[in-house]
Amino acid sequence: MVSITESPSRFPHLDRMSINELLTGINEEDAKIYLAIQKVLPQIEVLIDKILERMQLGGRVFYIGAGTSGRLGVLDASEIPPTFGVSHGIIIGLIAGGDTALRKAVESAEDNTEQAWKDMEVYDINKLDTVIGIAASGTTPYVIGGIQKAREEGLLTGGITCNPGSPLSLAAEHPIEAVVGPEFVTGSTRMKAGTAQKLILNMISTVLMIKMGRVKGNKMVNMQLTNKKLVERGTRMIVEELGLPKEEAKSLLLEYGSVKKVLDAYKKG
What we know:
Elements: H1 19-39, H2 41-55, E1 61-65, H3 67-84, E2 91-95, H4 115-121, E3 130-134, H5 141-152, E4 156-161, H6 167-171, E5 174-177, H7 192-211, H8 228-242, H9 246-256, H10 259-268
Parallel strand pairs: 1-2, 1-3, 3-4, 4-5
Helix pairs in contact: 1-7, 2-7, 3-7, 8-9
């Protein structure tokens, strides 16, 4: 039986369509992603709640994936430190084949069922940690093997896939199945499936950081000041919160290193 993510596109002749028809078709398919994720919000909520319990005790989150799925995990993990001012070891993205695979396919890397756990062992993984497997098809050996071993070792496990009843869903304690249907280009899971996975990862990491106190109101008060744009953004936050002149706000920001530290200093004062 052909899986949903490998099923034929409902558009049989892409090569005969105009640019407008292609764009309209892609847009129509993308509109299905929102509804697919809406259906699995309860499952995402339960997983986040379980992760949060562990993270508050010092636990971390590991994303494991191959190909597009692995790249999305690494992308999400890499954006958390500058956005929320946490260490790079809080959410860790691992891809089959290592960093080389971020730009080029590494032959057969995803077929090794033992490598994911070996990759995680480097980080002294423990029972407070959570492992989330990401695989559009839900059949990637690297991911399934990692999830199975993590669950055997007593870790919390989740799976993000776009095929119902897949091996990944069966292996993970908390499966999330965003069934977005066949891809616009048959089997090209970098499209709808990849977008769905990215949106779910956004939800998981963002909600965790908010609940861990890394956001005040709706502002990224812990963001790293890595460029002029972020310094200007932080300055505006301080001006809005404390009513200070812009130059004074900027001076304080650069002195303390983050919006939160400035606000905390003023509270103590």
